[in-house]
Amino acid sequence: MPARRVLSALVLSLVCSAIFTVWLGKTYFKSKSAAPVQQRYVGATANLEPGQVLNATNLKTVDWPANVPLQNPYTKPEEIVGRTLLYPLAAGQPILERDLSAIGAGAGLSTRIPDGMRAISLRTDQIVGVAGFLLPGTRVDVLVTYHTLTTQAPVTSTVLQDAQILAAGQKMQADPDGKPNTTDVVTLLVSPADAERVVLASAQGTVHFVLRNGQDHTQVEDAPAQISALGGFGPLSKTPEQPKEPVVKHVAAPVVAAAPKPYSVQTISGGKQTTETFQ
After folding, report:
1. Could you tell me whether strands 206-212 and 263-269 are parallel, antiparallel, or unpaired per DSSP bridges?
2. Alpha helices, DSSP H only, in the chain?
3. Residues 134, 194: contact at Cβ < 8 Å?
4. What is the pLDDT of residues 140-169, one digit of tens each?
5. Cα distances (angstroms) measured from residue 24 to each of 11, 27, 33, 78
6. How far apart are CA 148 and CA 223, in angstroms?
7. pTM (2 decimals)?
8. SS3 78
9. Helix (H) or strand (E) holding 63
10. Which of 63, 65, 92, 96 is nearest to 79 (CA)?
11. Phi, psi of 147 (to 5 degrees)
């Protein structure tokens, strides 16, 4: 009788253990296979470029994992209709507050100018424009060649360093394939003080652009280059003159007057004749 009770208890415990194991396995795999919780935010229906004004046709709500937080997203398309895009967006990417211009800022280039900065346009050509590689987003130095007040010799000076190009012509976005863009006007992002210097420099002489590495933000202190730095080449250099032969002046010897010749005076008085000699 005791053996039967022990056997019954053992069988019951095995059954309970099996039931618990099956329940635990189902619960574990169910939690693993459950889809993560999704949030719905406003995103782009297609690839969007900077400067585009958002409207109902290029906005939609997209799913986003709740465990991946976003900073200041939007949940309703009507909240951002009419706002201007500052940066490129891919299709399906949620739109954040930092991607948009300020409310009432309008459209176009002005929305890409940060507070306290200015945009200024300078004329260029295919030569001083680095053969068309002055593209939006690249960085340049601005040089000017002018004549000083004290000398007619030309001087070249760097008036602006590490300036960002906002637009090349009317394009505010570089070609996706990196192709050069032929344009005769470049718009730079500058501070108010730098804008004054650039305007003054462009009024004094010829402006040149020097393309620089986008990762190089070093400010170089260098004296203006003068014509003497060209090693003797330039419009003011001359062929060395040959030494002149000394001029010999011939001075005539003083002329000594010859002594006057003596002369005689003969006087006849009656029958008497006299002769007198004078020197």
Report:
1. unpaired
2. 2-33, 192-204
3. no
4. 998 888 887 776 788 888 899 999 988 887
5. 20, 5, 14, 47
6. 14
7. 0.48
8. helix
9. strand 59-65
10. 96
11. -110, 135
